[in-house]
Amino acid sequence: MHGGDHSIAAQRTPSRWTKRGASGWILCGLILLPGLHAQAAGTQNDSASLAALLLRMKTNLLRNGVLAQQYTSVELWHNVNFDKSGKKTLDDSAKFENVFVEGLPYRKKVEENGKPLTGKAAEEEQKRYDKAVEERRKMSLEEKRRGLHLRFTYSWPLCCLTTLFDNRVVGHETINGRDMMVVGSTPKPDARPANEMEKSALNWKETTWIDVADAMPARIEVELLRDEGHFAKGMTNRIDFERFVDLPATGTQQEQAVWLQQSFVGRFRFKLLWFGATGETDQTWSDFKRFHVDMRLLEDTVEEVPRGTTPP
Questions:
Q1: What count of other Cβ atoms lies within 10 Å of the Cβ of residue 124?
Q2: Quick check: is 184 in a domain?
């Protein structure tokens, strides 16, 4: 409405456009234009800086994955399902020890619903463990390398934020005393995924809390934008990471940090044939301990990380 009113007023008063008035408008334009150009350039620079930060974060995630896989941990898992009326239909929990078997990470169940595994459940878990040992002893170096590589493949928008998503800074927050840039990412309307992983990533929007100093995600929240498989749109997942000092700074070496997954919270609604329900899944990881691993399995160019200390 303001634009229309301004046009009508200008058409009604053409006689007021004197040479002095016109020169005043031209001078005003000359003053404003540089500011507009600077603002546009600043926007472009901000966009370029954000893109560079996201690329750095993707690279750092891969390197961090190499370090993170050298840590054992204790994992607590809890899942609850509810029917359409809100009645609890399932309440399961388990405890796992994330260890290493033949040089590769292994998730071993040790408790179920608060009780140590016994009887048939313990036998089944032991069989699964023995099978993993047997299979991994037969694996070649290349097969183990591929197995590790798959663990560092990120789906959700993380895989392709700079190529398939529109990203913008939505704020800054402080987490554990560290400055975080909060970035919102939504699929581009004209995005063209190159594979199934990228196609699946476009079903999500993401908010990422990026540690400015380390260029690493300290928190990730994603929301499903459309139905996918048996899960309905609106499903949300949140992952929080904790920063540990992997190797302290020395006179010749900078501090080396590792970001370890600390918690996962998922809220979902699913439907299978005539059965539908909502659910909540919570996971936490703790008691991290560093385990010496020859990381040349992953990539020939990645140097083996020296043995460090257990984080506090």
A1: 12
A2: yes
φ, ψ at 68 (rounded to 5°): -60, -30
Is 13 among the domain residues? no
3-state secondary structure 259-282: EEEEEEEEEEEEEECCEEEEEEEE
Q: How confident is the model at residue 65 (pLDDT cuts 50, 70, 90)?
A: confident
Quote the pLDDT of residue 194: 92
pLDDT in tens, 207-256: 999 999 999 999 999 999 999 888 999 999 999 999 999 888 888 888 99
What single-letter amino acid sits at 267?
Answer: R
Residue span of the structural domain in which 161 resides: 49-297
- State the residue for tokens 């007021």: 16
Of 278, 272, 273, 179, the closest CA to residue 235 belongs to 278
Q: What is the rounded CA–CA span in Å between residue 295 and residue 301? A: 10
Q: How many domains does the chain have?
A: 1
Counting every residue, how long is the chain? 312
